[in-house]
Amino acid sequence: MIAAAIAPARAAAFEILLKIATTDAHSDELLRSHTVDALSVQDRALATTLVMGTLRWQLKLDAQIRPFLSRPNAKLAPAVETALRLGAFQLLYLDRIPAHAAIGESVELAKQAGETHASRMVNAVLRKLAHAPDNPPQQKSLADEFAHPAWMVERWERFYGRDAARAICSFGQEPAAVSVRLAHPDAEQALIDDGIELTEGEFLTATRRVVRGDIVRSDAFQRRWVRIQDEGSQLVAELAGHGKNILDACAAPGGKTAILAERNPGAAILAIDISKKRLDAMRENFPDSRVRFAVQDAAALELTNEYDLVLCDVPCTGTGTIGRNLEIRFRVSEREIERQHTRQVQILAHALKGLVPGGRLLYSTCSLEPEENEAVVAEYLKGQQFRLVSLDHEVSRLEREGAIHAEGTQKLRASALRCDFLRTIPGVHNCDGFFAALFERA
Fold first, then answer.
1. Catalytic residue (choose from 169, 250, 316, 366)
2. Is 326 a domain residue?
């Protein structure tokens, strides 16, 4: 446990960053924990700033810390490295925090984490960093400028061009926007009454972006009148369309399932997921729903022709969500992209078998990598059993139904719809990066 001498926000931030460095935990989940929720409003905001800022700039922080080590290539204990990064972020990026506080508490954090022998080194390195002269501006790569892995940025430049790659990287360094789904007629007014300032979504009429206010503490959120959900994620679920017998093949955490239920009030819906824990968490959000749940591996489904609509939002590297899931940039590798492709092909193959003639399947990911998107789709377009349905037609349908506003349709046609596919790009669009393709069985 961290002693009371450490400021609560720094103590919470340190423990979260250390857990991310030593486990497969995710920052967004840890920042919604009971420990963080118990902090004051100010401390909760500071803890979030410290965690997200340190993760956003971690590669750059490491590059600035390492030259001051007596052995720049030495492997550091996770607690020591975390204390150095947390202190360096405050010194270099947060002008309002006094240097003595950033340094002193980073040293104390290292001590209390059991690294007493390294605390003097933490002190020395951070003091040198605090007094180091500013380097003159130099021509830098996008990876250096925005603290992203070079191999990842080079791929985006190759696939999308330099301007789009810059937009992706820049978007990933800004606090992620909070978008909500209005799921009740009185939701918007209730949020306004609670002092939440909103603006319209980029595409969808049921989306609002939070400009100011704590949505989680609002009455509308507590009553489940609104859900926090990225607009790109909402758009994918809207594109899936209508059916009477629906399978959500990789359902957790359930935001898309909820939209399927909203848009198909008379349908029977089966939501499956490989994770019992995540599926159990989903059940709590569907207490009186006709949605059925089953723990199943979508890559091993044994289906016959029974569904007229399948949503296949497959597990992926998540590189389209790197702005809100910052640790992805440290965990994903090119080998992981290949591994995900193989599993995605398996899931799609099994899910397509469940379609009745004329039935539709929406394949989607939140990845920017073509191997997880176009390359997976291409595996099933060699024969005549399935065809792709133009998503431009589906966008027109959604505008007619009032789900997409006219300006949203224009934006999607101008920059997101290509060759029957839909792709949102972070920074080009004000949402996470999603890919979608719609199959129809002949």
1. 366
2. yes
